[in-house]
Amino acid sequence: MSKLVYNEMLKIVRKKRLWVIAAIIAVLVALFTYAQYRETEELRKRLGTTDWRTQLQQQIVDLQNRLQSPSMSEEWRKYLQIRLKQQQYYLEHNINPSAPGAPTFMRTFIENAIDLFLPLLVMVVAADLVSSEASAGTIKLLLVRPVKRWKILLSKYIALLLSVSLIMLMAAVLSYAISGVVFGYGGFRLPLLTGFVPQGEELNTENVHIIPQWKYILIELGLAAFVSVVVGTLTFMLSVLLRSTAAVMGIMLAALISGAILSNMVSSWHSAKYLFMVNLRLTDYMRGTAPPIEGMTLGFSMSVLAVWGLVGLFVAFLVFTRRDIY
Amino acid sequence: MTKQVMLAVKELRKTIRGKEIIKGISFELHEGEVFGFLGPNGAGKTTTIRMLVGLIRPTSGTVAICGYDLHRQFTDAIRQIGCIVENPEMYPYLTGWENLEHFARMMPGIGADRIMEVAKLVGLEQRIHDRVSTYSLGMRQRLGIAQALLGKPKVLILDEPTNGLDPAGIREMRAFIRFLAETEGLSVLVSSHLLSEIQLMCDRVAIMAKGRLLTVDTVERLLKKQARVDWKAAPIDKARALLAEETEVLRTDEETVVTPYEPDKLAGWNAKLVQAGVLVSKIESRLPTLEDLFIELTGGETIE
């Protein structure tokens, strides 16, 4: 089995996929770092001070002003009220929620990348894992070996899991290393609040507690890895079902983007919470932002994702081991 | 003399979406022979070959390779086979060596020495460490043969092995296949839609059309059984009418009539034609080409 996995990793590496992904991450992180830098500068200029308390107070005033606007949808108002309460909590307890530093950048990067960017990178590897062999015809030479078909597919899936781990590692290391040049490398022990539970309009602060940033980042990385594995598995399934890598990419991209759009408009369509793509923002539960549909929790979202992933894996194996190769 | 059966196919059938594509095929491949699989495009050759190597699951029927059932003992059965199905697609971004190494990792007990051995056997040792994307079609074909031979198979299955090769390449491939059968003792199954090819390199041939085997026999016997005579004569219509009174007219075109070869009656038929004022410019007895056989067996269907 290890030889088969070696074969699959060799093919992924030789196709230079992982290098492309590393390059994409590096370029985007540099871009985001610069944008973040400009934003802090702008804020500093506007407030005339770098004191985060003044910044936070300013943000709270901003939020309160926006809340007074009458032409605001009920949903948006609800969301802003929750944010407001959360920020007031930070202020009262003297905690800087966005202390600059590479770890903080890394954390926001993961939070923003979890539903679209990281899954996209995983798709780059997963989309052509099987479909490229089918469209190039190499699948024929692969399947006439004295190895059962399920073993061949399993070796490909293990190679995918290894690639996902590598991508997560690259995202973490590169975002830390590159942003640290500008923001400095300290800040792993920064205390952060978590455990906010949005309940209707209220933000339940009963379970709020402090954890160090490094722990927070590890948890978020774990959640991001979980999301990436599920998206990778679904892409893998499509890669088995379809011969065209472009079609696999197209369908998965459409699903991910529709998830991002749906999240903003499905609050009254309750059964939409069983779609995998509205459950991708797992890190939001850590920060206590309101979920797209009321009643969604971290456990719920992870279960939905797990079920989608398992069904995808089952379909992939079922089809691959039975299919006629023309 | 009875030779060992290397590949036994019994009543193989395949139905795709309610349509029967392969309608009960049975044949045997003996030790050390080159067996030709001849038929027009769309006859079901490739589908049959894919069932022989486990890429397509037959609807019914069995395939046994060296006594192992392909479906119940897949790994044992497939280990005896080396094959190229249609084009030998390799990974273009790997070198020839890496491609062979890749497949060697999927088979037990195949090491670097065996890889070098097959590379030498197909005459690719000079370029084996170059990327496959830089190979010519002929070299890819050879690399395809190399990967098929890698696992020391007893049966070699080649689907249209000379497809896309130039005449020199075709001749070389033919010689190589004969060499494998005669010197290495492999049993080779070769499919082709080209008659000349099968005729030149096969011991036995199966003729396939529309999902059925029309006949299985040695090439020699098939050809001998049906020796024939070409009559070149004018006016052709009159010649055909007169000959039809005496014997069976197998075929006619604008200037030739084809009849069976019956040496003792030939002179009599000729005299009759001459007396009737038909100008006979050529009487030629010859062995039939497979094309003749094919047309006769399928009732007038042409190849391609």
Keywords:
heterodimer; A: 326 residues; mainly alpha; two-stranded antiparallel ribbon; 4 strands; globular; B: 304 residues; alpha/beta; Alpha-Beta Plaits; 2 domains; six-stranded mixed beta sheet; 34% helix; elongated
Your description of this structure?
- The complex is a heterodimer of chains A (326) and B (304).
- Chain A has 326 residues and is mainly α.
- Chain A contains 13 helices and 4 strands.
- In chain A, α5 runs parallel beside α10.
- Chain A starts with a helix and ends with a helix.
- By secondary structure, chain B is an alpha/beta fold.
- Chain B contains 11 helices and 14 strands.
- The radius of gyration of chain B is 23 Å and the shape is elongated.
- Chain B has 2 domains: 219 residues, Rossmann fold (3-Layer(aba) Sandwich), CATH 3.40.50; 59 residues, Alpha-Beta Plaits (2-Layer Sandwich), CATH 3.30.70.
- In chain B, the strands form 3 sheets. Chain B has a 6-stranded mixed sheet, with helices on both faces.
- At the A-B interface, α1 and α8 of A face α2 and α3 of B.
